[in-house]
Amino acid sequence: MKLFVDTGNVREVETLASIGILDGVTTNPSLLAKEGGDFRHILKQICLTVQGPVSAEVVATESASMVREGRDLATIDEHIVVKVPFGKDGVKACRALTRDGIRVNVTLVFSATQALLAAKAGAYFVSPFVGRLDDVATDGMELIEQIVEIYDNYKFSTEVLVASVRHPIHVVQAARLGADICTCPAAVIEAMFKHPLTDIGLARFLKDWEKAQGIKV
Questions:
Q1: Does 34 qualify as catalytic in the annotation?
Q2: pTM for this one?
Q3: How many domains does the chain have?
Q4: 2, 34, 44, 83: the active-site residue
Q5: Which residue among 9, 174, 200, 208 has its CA within the 20 to 30 Å range from the CA of 33?
Q6: pLDDT tens sequence across 137-183
Q7: CATH classification of the domain holding 201
Q8: Domain range for residue 106?
């Protein structure tokens, strides 16, 4: 399963990319607005750093405007994937952009029927939001299971990009269900490195080594 970071912060991308575990980045208008500055420059820097898919979202809500904006975003870098919100206009824009050879990430997906329609429109990625479903007492990972099954049944090439990830268990569940990608805040990826037994074990090894060195002297 590929691992993306959900951020508009270039430094966070650089840090994770330097470790060698990062496959791509997802951004949205809120994340980029938080950073300030020229969003096109930020997206270009992210693309140069990760050298993988970088989702950049349109802010238009009408299909023709989405297409115009999506075409413009795609000129920033070859790694840009244009993100459009699900809906009739979003699906229509997805089809038009896909016909132009532009990769599209259909976001704000909350049902299997929405995911099916996005795939039929040629979406490159579909982004179901598991955390937001959990927030309203609905099992977000059950939706992932449904989408993976449907896409497998009909050999859709659309990749399942699990979004709105809140904690490492979401990552584990997504991987077990066969999702293609998980996009996580940097804090969630950081938490994936941690386990108290690892810390205890390392401290014990170092203590034993220091003790052995002391005996030799």
A1: no
A2: 0.94
A3: 1
A4: 83
A5: 174
A6: 999 999 999 999 999 999 999 999 999 999 999 999 999 999 999 99
A7: 3.20.20.70
A8: 2-216
